[in-house]
């Protein structure tokens, strides 16, 4: 009877021993198995890295403070190459803190190398927002405008316009570049003999040479007196009258901006405070008074470099520029013909006025410009 009990007791002891060995080798209190990889305390697994994240909104040009960056763990296979990442948290932080933001960085946005710079001088590489709207191969140029030349201020950013140019032209001497006719006289040197005559320079009043035709052209009119038959060269009393011409200079230019671009830190609205005084109404001292907003007097267009040169030349010589508005999807090229006085008379069947024995009084030498009522309106002071 004792032998079975001893065997049972021995089996129980053996099972308890096996259980104890299992707990010691497989549980948390035992030593790790040989060959098992260990992860040091505070280290990041090889498949996970630290990524720098903006902990607050960082303005363009501001230096990144120490509390402006936090580290976020991210699987290595999800990290983009431009992100600032690594396995050493402090090394990443030291690489970012103290540097200058090249652009506005929002809170929670991963920080990349393109977002930060060593010095504020590198911020010029960011450029302006307006330059982003200019296609490659084009350029922007600003020209003056008013209510009449700017389509009554109907133009807005993104519109498509044509630019018309009007000029006055005169005939000039190709050598002197002076307005014709030239005035000259006969010059003869005194003295000389029959064998060696004196040199003589001759010229006639109002003559100039047409180099294209190779002939002398007499300006003015030649009148022959009836009684004596003498010829008289009549010189014009006044100066040469300029001849006007108009033509389309630029076709389908896009409006980049109407008016002057706002500078950084410049207030968008103008407000003037009332002067405080003894006669100011009670409770109204220092109250803001709205200032009249001036209409735009300048417009910026996106044109080709060649069109920009043409517009610049037209502005420098004082030519008149007028804008015309086109439909949004109107990109069909159209041909135009220069408009002159002769073109108007022939194309629009304009009758040339006859010389009459009567006229208007007072004499009309210039066309009367229409006076627009709003241009003469006076803004009454605010009560």
Nutshell version of this structure?
The protein has 383 residues and is an alpha+beta fold. Helices cover 14% and strands 23% of the residues.
Strand and helix layout:
Layout: H1 2-26, E1 48-54, E2 69-75, E3 85-86, H2 89-96, E4 100-101, E5 116-117, E6 139-144, E7 160-169, E8 187-188, E9 200-201, E10 207-210, E11 215-218, E12 221-224, E13 231-234, E14 243-258, E15 271-273, E16 288-290, E17 298-303, H3 305-316, E18 320-325, H4 341-347
Antiparallel strand pairs: 1-2, 1-3, 4-5, 6-17, 7-14, 7-18, 8-9, 10-11, 12-13, 14-17, 15-16
Class based on secondary structure composition and strand pairing = alpha+beta
How much of the sequence lies in strands comes to 15-25%
Average residue-wise pLDDT: 77
Q: Give the SSE order as H and E letters.
A: HEEEHEEEEEEEEEEEEEEHEH
**Uncertain parts:** 28-36, 185-189, 199-206, 269-278
Spatial separation of the terminal alpha carbons: 123 Å
């Amino acid at each position: 009877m004792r032998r079975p009990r001893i065997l049972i007791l021995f089996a129980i002891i053996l099972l308890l021993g096996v259980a104890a060995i299992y707990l010691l080798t497989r549980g948390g209190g035992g030593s790790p198995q040989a060959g098992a990889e260990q992860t040091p305390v505070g280290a990041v697994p090889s498949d996970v890295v630290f990524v720098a994240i903006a902990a607050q909104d960082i303005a363009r040009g501001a230096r990144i403070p120490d509390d402006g960056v936090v580290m976020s763990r991210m699987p290595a296979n999800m990290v983009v190459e431009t992100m600032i990442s690594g396995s050493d948290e402090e090394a990443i932080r030291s690489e970012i803190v103290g540097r200058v933001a090249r652009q506005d960085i929002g809170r929670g946005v991963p920080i990349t190398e393109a977002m930060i710079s060593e010095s504020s001088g590198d911020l010029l590489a960011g450029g302006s927002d307006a330059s982003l709207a200019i296609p490659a191969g084009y350029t922007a140029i600003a020209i003056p405008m008013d209510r009449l030349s700017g389509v009554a201020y109907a133009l807005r950013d993104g519109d498509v316009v044509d630019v018309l140019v009007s000029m006055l032209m005169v005939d000039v001497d190709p050598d002197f570049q002076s307005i014709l006719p030239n005035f000259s006289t006969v010059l003869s040197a005194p003295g000389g003999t029959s064998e060696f005559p004196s040199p003589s320079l001759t010229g006639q009043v109002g003559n100039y040479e047409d180099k294209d035709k190779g002939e002398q052209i007499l300006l003015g009119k030649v009148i022959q007196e009836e009684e004596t038959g003498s010829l008289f060269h009549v010189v014009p009393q006044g100066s040469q009258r300029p001849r006007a011409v108009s033509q389309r200079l630029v076709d389908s230019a896009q409006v980049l901006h109407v008016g002057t671009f706002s500078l950084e830190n410049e207030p968008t609205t103008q407000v003037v405070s009332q002067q405080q005084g003894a006669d100011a109404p009670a409770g109204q001292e220092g109250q803001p008074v709205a200032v009249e907003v001036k209409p735009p007097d300048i417009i910026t267009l996106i044109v080709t470099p060649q069109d920009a040169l043409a517009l610049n030349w037209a502005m420098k010589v004082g030519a008149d520029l007028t804008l015309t508005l086109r439909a949004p999807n109107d990109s069909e090229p159209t041909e135009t013909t220069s408009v002159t006085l002769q073109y108007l008379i022939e194309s629009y069947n304009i009758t040339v006025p006859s010389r009459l024995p009567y006229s208007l009084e007072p004499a009309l030498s210039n066309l009367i410009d229409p006076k627009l009522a709003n241009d003469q309106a006076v803004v009454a002071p605010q009560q």
